[in-house]
Amino acid sequence: MMLRNQVLIWIGLLLALILVLWVFRGILLPFVVGAALAYLLNPLVNQLQKWRFNRVWATVVVLLCMMAIVVTLFSIFVPLIGQQIIGLIQRLPAYFSDLQQLATRYSPELNEWLGPERAAQVQVSINDLTRNALGFIATLPAELVNIGLTGAAVVGFTILSPVVAFYLLLDWEGMVRGIDGLLPQTHKAEIKGILRDIDRSMAGVIRGQGGVLLIDAAYYATALSLIGLNYGLAVGLIAGLMSFIPFAGFTLGLGLSVGIAIVQFAPNWWMVAGVASIFLFWQFIEGNVLYPKLVGSSININPVWMMFALLALGAVFGFVGLLLAVPMAAIASVLVRYGVRKYKESSLYLGSDDGKSSDDAAA
User: Fold this and answer.
1) What are 317-360's pLDDT values in tens digits?
2) Which long-range contacts (CB under 8 A, 24 or more apart) does 103-106 make?
3) d(Cα 27, Cα 142) in Å, to the nearest integer?
4) Which of 33, 209, 224, 259 has its CB 3.0 to 4.6 Å from that of 232, i.e. a possible disulfide?
5) 129 assigned to some structural domain
6) Domain assignment of residue 359, yes or no
7) Is residue 361 part of a domain?
8) In 3D, which of 247, 223, 227 has the Cα closest to residue 237?
9) What is the pLDDT of residues 243-300, one digit of tens each?
10) What is the sign, positive or negative, of the torsion defined by CA atoms of 84, 30, 178, 195?
11) Which residue segment(s) compose the domain that 195 sits in?
12) Contact 290/299 with Cβ under 8 angstroms?
């Protein structure tokens, strides 16, 4: 009975949290970004405290250094990146039109190589892709407004997020002590173990996977720019930053860059192959080196569930849901693993002692 009541209480608290997030989803962006910054920067503040900095001064120093780095990077790269992204969006319809013309020009070779039926399917696929891409570009401004990426929202979270991060960092130790004091004494050790697992998983998401995204974006942007691909900087950044969706960054970047390379370099197919090899090589490096080293086994989430979490929370909460999807999926995976472990330790899974004794008696 006590266990059932506890389960009902936790389920009720979870539903209340979801309701609060849904009601206030329109103003959550600066708070979510600020909380992520605070979680990310808290180890640095703790390290400065070990060097005999006051908590206030440690928080001020870390936030000022972070803001100085961000402002410097923005002032250097944002004009160039913005120019390339705007140019890419404006040029995309022409790229798709050029691809259609190339497909028409090489249709005799395609017919000979693939056969008439497959060549016709390729032509239909290119036409469908062109139509869908043009429709997406036409609706992009409205979609950005729908998910809250308006100029006012960006300015708002740019100003408010550091303020939220400052106050959270300032009172981080007090919040941890307050949560610790609210834990039920009989299950305190077990709950703290779950919280440690969640912290490890969240660290893998925010620090480990965040590092992977930045390295991906830097590599793709640099490699595509060095090979001479038009708008390589913009395509590389888009591919790298979209890598938080499983396979989405790789697929989008590969398709977009190869399409641009075909228009730009054809009939020099070696250059097209070189552009494709940039993505194929890095996919191997990311899967076998970066993820094991930076993320490790802290995020044990099936890619299908990750994509479901992104789509579901994005549909319900908009852009804030996309930001919350990965850490929420990490927390859910820890809780599900804990629930499965407890189930396998329970009499429901192992069988009751009474049942065993009755079976023995019958035998």
Assistant:
1) 777 777 777 778 778 888 888 888 877 887 777 776 544 444 44
2) none
3) 19
4) 224
5) yes
6) no
7) no
8) 223
9) 777 677 788 888 888 888 888 887 788 888 888 899 889 888 887 777 766 665 556 6
10) negative
11) 188-345
12) no
